């Protein structure tokens, strides 16, 4: 399966910082998938999931991506639903979370 990823996303995949456009797209996906109904970001959101501000100090980008894709791979008793998020969307959400 091929993705039509922006230059910024490809840069992230190889370890180069990305632009604001990709972060904004990730923020939009974060909202679209209602991640903020369980997670607090910038003092807004639900409280049933962990606060995600400064998550980059606790997890590597690859770990954040994997948790978005399938938390049960890390934590079997997780209450986080599998949202069936595509790899492309998970990359954008990861970029947004890394910007916090």
Question: What do you see in this structure?
Answer:
With 100 residues, the protein is an all-alpha fold. It has one domain (7-98): Cytochrome c-like domain (Cytochrome Bc1 Complex, Chain D, domain 2, Orthogonal Bundle). The protein has helices at residues 7-13, 20-32, 61-70, 87-98. The N and C termini lie far apart (30 Å).
Describe, in short, the structure shown.
By secondary structure, the chain is mainly alpha-helical. The chain is 42% helix and 0% strand. The protein has one domain: Cytochrome Bc1 Complex, Chain D, domain 2, CATH 1.10.760.
Label the CATH architecture: Orthogonal Bundle
Q: CATH homologous superfamily, by name?
A: Cytochrome c-like domain
Please provide the ordered H/E string of secondary-structure elements.
HHHH
The average pLDDT value, as a whole number, equals 83
Q: Tell me the domain tally.
A: 1
Per CATH, the class reads Mainly Alpha
The tally of helices reads: 4
The best one-word shape is globular
Helix content: 40-55%
Structural class, please? mainly alpha
Beta-strand portion reads under 5%
**How many E strands?**
0
**What's the N-to-C terminus distance?**
30 Å
CATH topology: Cytochrome Bc1 Complex, Chain D, domain 2
Rg for CA atoms: 13 Å
Largest sheet: none
- Low-confidence spans: pLDDT under 50, at least 5 residues? none
């Amino acid at each position: 399966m091929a993705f039509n990823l922006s230059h910024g996303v490809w840069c992230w995949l190889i370890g180069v910082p990305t632009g604001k456009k990709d972060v904004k797209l990730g923020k939009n996906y974060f909202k679209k998938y209602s991640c903020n109904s369980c997670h607090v970001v910038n003092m807004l959101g639900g409280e049933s999931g962990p606060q995600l501000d400064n998550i980059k100090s606790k997890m590597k980008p690859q770990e954040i991506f994997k948790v978005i894709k399938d938390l049960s791979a890390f934590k079997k008793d997780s209450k986080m639903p599998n949202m069936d998020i595509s790899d492309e969307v998970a990359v954008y959400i990861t970029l947004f979370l890394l910007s916090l």
